[in-house]
Amino acid sequence: MTQQADRHLQTEITWSGFYMKKLCGTNYPLSICFVVVNEFCERFSYYGMKAVLTLYFLNYLEWDKDLSTAVYHAFSGLCYFTPILGALIADSWLGKFKTIIYLSFVYVIGHVVKSVGAIPTVGNKDSHIALSMVGLILIAFGTGGIKPCVAAFGGDQFDEEHMKERQKFFSIFYMSINAGSLLSTLITPILRGDVKCFGHDCYALAFGVPAALMMVALAVFIAGSSLYKRSPPQGNILLQVCNCIGFAIKNRWKSSKSDPKRKHWLDWAEDKYSKRLIQEIKMVLRVLVLYIPLPMFWALFDQQGSRWTLQATRMNLAFGESFTIQPDQMQMLNALMILLFVPIFDLIIYPLVGLCRVNITPLRKMAAGMIFAALAFGAATLVEVNVVKTVVEPAPAGKCLLQVVNLAEGNATVNILDSSFTISQLQDPPQYKLLHLQDSSKELDIEVTLGAKTTCRQTFTQEKAYSLIIYQEINDIKCKLVEDHINKNEDGTPNVRFLNTQPEAMNLTIGGVVFSAPPDYGVSSNQSVKRGEHSVKCNTQSADCGHLYLGLLDFGASYTFILINESGKIAAKRMVDVTANNVHIAWQIPQYALITAGEVMFSITGLEFSYSQAPTNMKSVLQAGWLLTVAFGNVIVLIVAEGAGLEQWIEFLLFAALLLGVCIIFSIMATFYTYVDPEQMDKVQLEEPGKDEDDHVDMKKKNVDMLMKETRKSTKL
């Protein structure tokens, strides 16, 4: 039975190999097909999960915007700290293949735990938070751990004579990264917002599909196990560099005398380490010093998934009458534009600038990329200033908001504290007034004049918003105070409530959402409904009052529908408590275009610069340093989001100004940098006799590392 199973398995491998060979082409190692499919699925799972993460924090875990942004960037930062750990494990212990396998299992477990935490029926809110955080930590270790391994492992599959095929592989590899990113940021927001489960947005499905794709990624990678070329771990150069630097510092600290032969502090490591290694570390440190200002660029760039997504929730998401997008889908613009902009810059813009006799150095490109990113946040500031015009600002401490809804016939004059205002019947929209309570809670007299004077006494609490309902009962004027919901929903949906003027209770249904309106000027709960034109089905205890047309319930608005009796029929009078989002989502396109242009000039050029300016066997060290700039950029956002407490448009403006300042500093530093000719890099002959053991290995790696310039096709690492 076992032999039959083995023969069956071998047959399956043979046939799958045949078709994969046809797919990939006969000049390619069959194994790289498994690597490319693995990368596509892994990037889909990562970016798909991350696309909906901020709204998950806001709407499911019910965190505020600042905490949601901080945790989002803490997770992003961790994803770029852990590649250092993955590189150490792969190079010093397990090798690339086993590291990818083991950490992919951690990755899958993290996705599963994260998906389970998004199921409302599993535990309580605390358990959801715990599962979500554990899942995110495991995902960060998984994705970060395999990040430095997969591309290099794919390059290892080619023999030295297949240089052209290897170049094409890297292009295909990074196209698969962008394809996975683009599709996932398009699909997972649809799964979240358009599919309902447990009566709400289906975050369990939005996380579950990326989890399934990561399982597929792992299964595909394992399926190619028998075909891979595997290089044993050969020691980690990053660890060697750290040890050399540590020894130099320690040796210099212990020495009480200066040594004129040792002009650089690293020269104090010559007692233990070779001159060649020390010279190479000096070269690397010159580049790493230039990296110091770079985190500020990433602080802006990575806010596409946090602050910019939050901005999108307060905008009009409709394209025409029938098509709308989800606020978290806008992130797909970056992946789409990077595919468009790379050839445009390489084939058109850079050559045209060159024709103007402008010397386009890599560091100048990076500085220009910073300027474009700052301009992107300038554009985001302008959008935000207009977006907040539809937002009702909450009352500060010691104050509250009050609007008056006049349901009586005629104009009513209201006097409260030092405020006096006249409200016509069913004035739309009502206007909120700020009341100075001077205490956390206060009971106030409200004088209402409508023919005769009536005094109402109501209790107000600070930092809340209220509607004062004035209505007529026989010959008396009465008042009713109702607490309002003025916050716009984070997913952009409108809010609805019903005020029932009738003597019997009413049940109303909008798109499956049920409202219960108590009798005698009772108010239903405030609930969100899907954006669109709606009719409400109305039922009373004594009769079916049919369907009432409510009109368009637009993005971000809050409505109060007053149910009144007109000539024996129930009618719904609409009052707009909070204005709908009136800034169209298309106004975000310029800021995405600017940030993507900045990415092409900054990130892609930075990768090429790093590889060209480092010795062959030190390129991994600079790659680690580059990833750390991304991590520290996310730490900057985490600090500002939690500590500054600024208005959003001011925060955007602050980031733009900081990046412009950093750009000036970086430009000054760049003027003192002397470029190293890559062709002369490996001609440095400072090695002492007896310390050339690794030269053969290093030279063998040279061609592979030179091809890593192909990574400039994408930054979705």
TrEMBL record:
Report the locations given in the UniProt record: Membrane
Topology in membrane: Multi-pass membrane protein
**SUPFAM superfamilies reported for this sequence:** MFS general substrate transporter
Q: Name one Pfam family in it.
A: PTR2
In the record, biological process GO terms are: protein transport
Q: Which UniProt keywords apply?
A: Membrane, Peptide transport, Protein transport, Symport, Transmembrane, Transmembrane helix, Transport
CDD domains associated with the record:
MFS_SLC15A2
GO CC annotations, alphabetized: membrane
**Which GO molecular function, any one, fits this protein according to its record?**
symporter activity
Bilayer-crossing residues are: 70-89, 101-123, 129-150, 171-191, 203-224, 283-301, 332-353, 365-383, 621-641, 653-676
**Does the record carry Transmembrane as a key word?**
yes
As for family, the record states:
Belongs to the major facilitator superfamily. Proton-dependent oligopeptide transporter (POT/PTR) (TC 2.A.17) family.
Any idea what this protein is called? Solute carrier family 15 member 2
Q: What is the lineage of its organism?
A: Eukaryota, Metazoa, Chordata, Craniata, Vertebrata
The coding gene here is slc15a2
